Amino acid sequence: xxxxxxxxxxxxxYLRMANEALDAVSDSxxxxxxxxxxxxxxxxxxxxxxxxxxxxxxxxxxxLNFAHGLLDAGVRTGVxxxxxxxxxxxxxx
Length: 93
Hints:
By secondary structure, the protein is mainly alpha-helical. It has three helices and no strands. The protein has a single domain, classed as Substrate Binding Domain Of Dnak, Chain:A, Domain 2 (Up-down Bundle).
């Protein structure tokens, strides 16, 4: 068994990036699929903030990765209409 650690700087960086990504997609979707993805990603970011407050940085980092993965998938599949390669992988459309 091994112990996993994540530094505070890394979690802070990804928390900022996740919030920027949420802001970027917040007005870029139509319909239920977009709203559902946005709300799910937003919930994961809120979970991450909770884990940061509890000092559980590994759990926070995991939640942030889930959140950003959902947002990135939404951009790549066209659910979110955002074109920002600094926040998302290039869309495949």
